[in-house]
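for the record, two folds in this file. i put them one after another cuz i was lazy. first one right below, seq on top, structure tokens after. the second one comes after a little note so u can tell where it starts
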Amino acid sequence: MPLSAMQSGNRKIAIAVDLSDESSYAVKWAVVNYLRPDDNVILLHVQPTSILYGADWGAIDQCIDMSDEESQQRLED
């Protein structure tokens, strides 16, 4: 992107948000310290799921019965 385009206020800024205090702080921080008057702001609302996703291992169900030794061993492996 040419330097003149960045200086003219054509920036697109995405901020991930959820219902946490940290998310609220991130938005406030961006408004005070980072955003320019002509910036385009995109708020990405993030919702929690019952499944963890990993880059290499796919989906893992979070509901693991820790009283079951077999389940506990699979979690540790």
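(here's the note) second protein begins now
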Amino acid sequence: LMPNLKYRGQWMPRRIPNPAYKGPWVPMQKPNPHFNVDMPLAAVQHPISRVVIDIYDRDSGAYFDDIVIADDLAETWRLVTDNIKRTFRAEALFYGIKERDDASSDEL
């Protein structure tokens, strides 16, 4: 190999001084009176015993509708069944299906 006599080291761009430079950009911070800090999940004092994930499986694929985190099984089950009933009633209204009159319509 032949040495390159014109080599002056690694190339660096020229620095042009900018007298108006004020330092790195920082976004403007405005106070938001409606902002509430959410309690982080790690700060919950009692242990979480139930996690329910409501998954719908459609022709276009599965998607998550609701995630319920609770410590009471009865309350969790009531939330999930109420949500399923609401969904079925909304679909029945959309497709024009009449709801059954007997008491078994509340049972899933």
